[in-house]
Amino acid sequence: MRLIPLLAALAIGDASFAQPSVPGSIPQGTSGISGVLIDARTKQPIAGCNVGLIQVNVPRNAITTTDFAGAYAFIGIADAEYHLNTQCDLHLPSCYRSPGTEPPGCDTVAVVVDQRKSNIDFNLIPGASAKGRVVDASGRPIAGATVRLGLPRFDARFVPAKPAQTSRDGTFTMTNLPVGGYLMEVDLPQAPGALRPPIVYFPGVLMFGDASFVELAAGEITSGLTIVAPRLSDNTLTVRVVTIEHSLSGVEVSFVRAMPLVTRPVPIDASGVGTIKGIAPGLYFLTARARSQDRHWVAHDLVEFSDGEQEVLLYLEPAARIAGRVVGENGAPITYDGVRVGATWLHDGIEVNPLDITETPVAANGTFTLDGLFGTRKLQLIGLDPDWEVRSIVQDRSDVTGSGVALTANTESKVVITLGRR
């Protein structure tokens, strides 16, 4: 038998249904739903919590607040089927569940005309709390960092939690957190002129596979958490663009991290030198582009950055180009109006930057030319009639449909793209 505190029982008695209807968009009627909110640990009523009533499959809702005895009541409502949920300051959000229903499942409550359901109760789990500090490698506090919960351990489920900001002394407090083991993530403030810092995981690592889970218990405070940010501000990558061509214009250098995708330009001075500060250890791609009269010049490199200071030389060479033709299988006629050929850079079969696509229109006779290229390129047709699909891409008599078009500096590759009907 379920026991309800005496004050709560009195608050939800039949007399409560004589009160005015709860404001909201729920239509008025002669039915009612009421209950109490109980702390699952202490078995005490919870006052000051919001309880929401939502009509099933209809955008109508109402909200009320529990009284000093943890009681709530929706009175004078229309006969219908409803969802109920809770929102409290110190207890985890929940929805109404019949006995035997496990999270995250929710159940509905149905009332007919003149029906009053008065035992729609909630046993709420008190939220956990976490306290700690974010400091740099020298132990100095980091203010303005954002601390949040990340992925749960396999025996916990993800529950949204409000992040916290570190104060001037680097401290943070997070409240009403879910129970279980969770990763803790930190977004560090970005220094002027530096890259946006990567996510730092507790206790101070950059790869979530190296992180430790933080244990959170219902109604308990996990304190003494210290997250030490790796030393990134001193990390500097210097880029030097080298060329034998003296009449270059519009030299552009780009810096790309593929996972997660980060791309930004690198300002280059008159001597062809640029710097990137605050770089985290990892793999990065550098590209340089320039023009001299009617010729494209390019350079690219894969950089495995560790820490400290590193320097990369980018040697500009005349770019490669693709001269291609799009044809129909067995000579089938195709209309190329609005069709474009796009080329993205591949590394080990993966697109380095899917957002960076070199494009050119396909002429009425199916021909196209792509210039300013380097590396291996994945070709795609943009704006193609959905009745057609690419059957093969052949480069100099070799099928490169899956592998991409491999290019050599200062050369032209012949490519044929064959289409067939779906």
Can you walk me through this structure?
The protein has one helix at 6-11; strands spanning 28-39, 50-55, 61-65, 71-77, 80-87, 94-95, 109-111, 116-117, 122-124, 128-135, 146-152, 164-165, 171-177, 180-187, 200-201, 214-216, 221-228, 236-242, 249-257, 262-266, 273-277, 282-292, 295-305, 309-315, 317-318, 320-328, 340-347, 350-351, 358-361, 367-373, 376-382, 388-395, 398-399, 405-406, 412-421. The chain has 422 residues and is mainly β. The chain has 4 domains: 6-124, Immunoglobulins (Immunoglobulin-like); 128-228, Carboxypeptidase-like, regulatory domain (Immunoglobulin-like, Sandwich); 240-317, no CATH class; 320-421, Immunoglobulin-like (Sandwich), CATH 2.60.40. The strands form 8 sheets. Strands 2, 3, 5, 6 and 7 form a 5-stranded antiparallel β-sheet that branches. Strands 11, 12, 14, 15 and 16 form a 5-stranded antiparallel β-sheet that branches. Strands 20-19-22-23-25 form a 5-stranded antiparallel β-sheet, with no helix packed on it. β5 (80-87) and β6 (94-95) form a beta hairpin. The longest helix has 6 residues, at 6-11. It starts with 5 loop residues before the first helix and ends with a strand. Mean pLDDT is 89; it is low at 1-21.
Quick overview:
With 422 residues, this protein is mainly β.
Key features of this structure:
disordered N terminus, 1 helix, Immunoglobulin-like, flat, mainly beta, single chain, 5-stranded antiparallel β-sheet, 4 domains, 422 residues, 35 strands
